[in-house]
Specification:
Elements: E1 5-8, H1 15-23, E2 40-45, H2 49-58, E3 62-64, E4 67-72, H3 87-95, E5 99-105, H4 127-160, H5 162-167, H6 169-183, H7 195-202, E6 212-217, H8 229-241, E7 244-248, H9 250-257, H10 262-270, H11 278-289, E8 292-297, E9 302-309, H12 314-321, H13 323-327, E10 329-336, H14 337-343, H15 346-351, E11 356-358, E12 368-374
Parallel strand pairs: 1-4, 1-5, 3-9, 5-6, 6-7
Antiparallel strand pairs: 2-4, 8-9, 10-11, 10-12
Helix pairs in contact: 1-9, 4-6, 6-7
Length: about 375
């Protein structure tokens, strides 16, 4: 399963508009259902003010951001789990992602058709019904996955006996917790699962177990307030699932993405009272939802943000730069971006006793600046 975020939702809710603004890629965004048949993939720079600050200190020849991978998946409708609207293909695309960004239409526009159950029949804009439709289709797909695995497990127990039955106990207890939820269209991620149960269910890659972020696509009139009645409905649903919400105006972000000059971008955002692009917030939240963290390296040649998983040790982080660094790891010299912000230079960080030597067991923290010593 790839470390990427799948952008999902009903047709015509603004998924492809948001994706195009994110990636500046020519993803199709015509006003009719299923215009996105093959998933568009885009790699997005992760905006990070910490890297900007590091570069302001070192004045490097090159600055390299961490990245987030997004996949634009075509609109799902009711019946997708049974193959409606090429649903099986699209569900397979979702299954390959590690995180879901569920775009919900939170704006009125009579010129843009809204559909839910039938691609040819207009439906009222109703975020609660929209979310329930998508969640039910994903839940039905998960129930089918579980049913197929149960058939396989029965054969395994018959062949191997009680030992296999004992090994499958966490899987069975996990399924007993999530099945009633799925039957009601409630995501499996809301279940109170033990670590053993999560591990036992993991390899099925259940769609509703994936971490999910709700993306409210609003109109330009709602940008300054940052909310409307539709958004508040989504926030209540997200809170019940312990999910997060990002509010974005896809139309505004699309226009913003066409501006190449930073001062023009800032002026355009100031005009609607935005301090940060909604897409920047989306990229950051997606990155953390994937369990990813950032460390930095700095110098006159390059200042760079590197991506690791939360909990990775120093040798693992070194291996992200080059496998030889991990194999021959000796130690990591470390300080934080905040240390640099406070003291101004590496020399002053050392004078203050904040320059650290870390060994093989050190768990790298988000925002560390590292220099690796290794021996090949």
């Amino acid at each position: 399963m790839s470390l990427e975020c799948g952008i999902v939702g009903l047709p015509n809710v603004g998924k492809s508009t948001i994706f195009s603004a994110l990636t500046a890629a020519p993803a199709a965004a015509e006003n009719f259902p299923f215009c996105t048949i093959d998933p568009n993939v885009g790699i997005v720079d992760l905006p990070d003010e910490r890297l900007d600050f590091l570069a302001s200190v070192f004045s490097p020849k090159k600055k390299t951001f961490a990245t987030v991978k997004f996949v634009d998946i075509a609109g799902l409708i009711k019946g997708a789990s049974k193959g409606e609207g090429l649903g099986n293909q699209f569900l397979a695309n979702i299954r390959e992602t590690s995180v879901i960004a569920h775009v919900v239409r939170c704006f009125d526009n009579p010129d843009i058709m809204h559909v839910r159950e039938d691609a040819k029949v207009e439906a009222a804009v109703d975020p609660e019904s929209d979310i329930l439709t998508i969640n039910m289709e994903l839940a039905l797909a998960d129930l089918e996955t579980i049913s197929k695995r149960e058939e396989k497990n029965v054969k395994t127990v018959r062949a191997l006996g009680k030992d296999a039955e004992k090994q499958l106990a966490p899987w069975k207890s996990g399924v007993e917790k999530i099945r009633p939820l799925l039957q009601d269209g409630v995501p499996a991620r809301t279940a109170d699962l033990t670590d053993d149960e999560k591990a036992a269910l993991y390899d099925m890659h259940l769609l509703t177990l994936k971490p999910t972020l709700y993306v409210c696509n609003i109109d330009e009139d709602s940008i300054e307030a940052g909310t409307n009645n539709y958004v508040e409905t989504v926030k209540k649903i997200a809170a019940s699932e312990n999910s997060d919400v990002v509010v974005i105006c896809g139309k505004f972000e699309s226009e913003l993405s066409e501006l190449g000059d930073d001062s023009e971008r800032k002026e355009f955002m100031d005009s609607v009272g935005l301090k940060e692009s909604g897409l920047s917030v989306l990229a950051k939240k997606t990155y953390h939802l994937m369990g990813l963290r950032t460390f930095f390296t700095g110098g006159q040649d390059e200042c760079r943000a590197w991506t690791i998983r939360a909990g990775d040790t120093a040798p693992k982080a070194a291996g992200v730069i080059h496998t030889d660094f991990e194999k021959g790891f000796i130690k990591a010299e470390a300080y934080t971006i905040e240390d640099l912000r406070q003291f101004g230079t590496e020399a002053k960080i050392k004078e203050a006793g904040k320059y650290r030597q870390e060994g093989k067991d050190y768990v790298v923290q988000d925002g560390d600046v590292l220099f690796f010593k290794f021996n090949v």
